[in-house]
Predict the 3D structure of the following.
Amino acid sequence: MIIAGIDIGNASTETALARYVDGKPEFLCSGIVDTTGMKGTRQNIHGVFASLKQALEKADLTVEDVDLIRINEAAPVIGDVAMETITETIITESTMIGHNPSTPGGLGIGVGVTVDIREVNNCDKGESVIVVIPREVDFEDSSRIINHAVNNGIFVNGAIVQRDDGVLINNRLMKKIPIVDEVSLIDKVPRNMRAAIEVAAAGSVVEQLSNPYGIATVFDLTSDETKQVVPVSRALIGNRSAVVIKTPAGDVKERKIPAGQIIIQGTNKKAQVNVDDGAEKIMDAIRSVAPVEDIRGEAGTNAGGMLEKVRQVMSHLTDQLPSAIKIQDLLAVDTFVPQTVKGGVAEEFSMENAVGIAAMVKADKLQMNMIAHELEAELGVKVEVGGVEADMAIRGALTTPGSNKPLAIIDMGAGSTDAAIINRAGEIKSIHLAGAGNMVTLLIASELGHDNMALAEDIKKYPLAKVESLFHIRHEDGTVQFFDKPLDPRTFARVVILTPNGMVPMPGNYSLERIRAVRREAKTKVFVVNAIRSLERVSPTGNVRDIEFVTLVGGSALDFEIPQLVTDALSKYSIVSGRANIRGVEGPRNAVATGLVLAYEEGE
Amino acid sequence: MRMDFDAPKPEIKIVHGKNIMFQKVVDEVLHGIEEEGVPFSIEELEDANPVELAFRGAELSHLGVGIGITENEVVLHYIKLKEDQPIFRIPAYSNEATLRAIGSNAARLVKKMPFKNLDNTELS
């Protein structure tokens, strides 16, 4: 008879197809497609069809040949992720341009009153001014006007330019001044205010304006006022050019957003923790009250909103009342998010602190039976819900060559990280934790300031390279690869992601090292932390060291560096760990589907 | 071609046809290069094909980067490319920003910086 084991995961639906001969399974082939809809919902059925069809086609069979389909009693966990910034920088009445045009003009520091270039000749002799040059005035006119004004005894000490004209203007001036160009929102630059402009030499960074006392010197500030400009100077650190404008009511604040409290209700204990305190405190609190029954956020705060949003999504997907949804685990991660400064004039941004949260919800078990019934009705093949997901995964994982009981597995998926352990007697203990591949994608996207999740997903999955000429790239590890044909000019001098579909150029100015660091850090923060957290929970003694062998399964175990990061971290606890190789051919994929087929043999 | 025996200056070579009526186009391209701070020089040749002019420029340039300009087209070429496959070519009636951008891109090819888009949108 022919049996299909089908595993519906958060991200992919996998099929293992086997023929039983004399009570022994002989695996034919497998199928894998993206899961349709949220795991555990009716929409999954399309994915199940597609996955099964794929496997059947490879084996030259049709649905009629299948005698039994076994689907997993999906561990009823669904993960969701959210991100909340806990600080923000606001400028009331714009006071700074922390701006990094690629080619500013001139050199040095200049102080004066801001004046529209078309009105500069109305200024008094001997006055110090900074000219503001909007798009309508081209560089030839600008430089002529400035030269003329200087001849008339007006001190033009700097220029703020809208177009990319800084060098061109500078080259035509008799007296060199610092020029900041590419200031897109030039209309927002206040006129008739004292301003300071600094442009550093190529290869160096601004020194005066990135120092609070430097700004105080330029504007004669009191000590109280100096305290207020700290966020300004901080935002200017590392820039090659900068403008600071002093407006009477001008004020830059770094505001701490009241993020609110998270209330963790355990079986016996209860803990409250402030989101502002950061991820570490939150994780400590969760550890201290384990096992967790529900997690709530303080109503009317960001934390409350964040967790309520997760609850809403879950209740919608599972057709339950929001109050019936229990958040049973939470992974909090400290991160940085580049945010546009409110009130800035050149779209300057500052790095704000944020907390990323992955939550895990236990959902209704009946959904799987409903899926089974519908499948049976549509396919005309007997469908049964077989066994707990973790048990099936262990059974599948044990087909890895070189593995034996006792064995622990870590199933690193997209929505959750699951761990299970089987002892010599065959008893299985399992746990589901929040935070997996989707969380990594979210962290990468937010730290690099991209809204584009598909791009973040690519960054997560594939290695990077830098295009160094039209004919060669340098990989992350420094090796150089040459090409016969010239590369796409759009990739020239950029960091690219080496996807199977070709090179994808990265927007923005992040260096390869920076993107790589963000990527690896996101993976460590989620998977290494969760690997240790999950093993702690399933270890018979509560100590990670008492586990000897660990295999890694699930989609994220396919990643080109996650298994290494985890293996490396676990080796410090003297644990042998590595990527599973299901049935010796499937790699870390197909563990549950394989387990479902094998479990039939044992009559479960 | 005149040969210089002292160390030649590294520069981008702009080559345009004789008796030009399109000084404005040449100027905008030059401004693009100037803004990026890369040296350049100009040559006048008979040839009327902009791609050939550009490649000739790339051959003459010690940076291997040439720009060919005729009354119809502006072409950016690089010495290591096939003669008939330049990097960028735009019509000479393009707007000021685009003409400047192709000049900037010639400089950026030398500086190994990402190109500006020639449709007036920056990728970054």
Notes: The beta strands of chain B are 12-17, 40-45, 65-69, 73-78, 88-91.
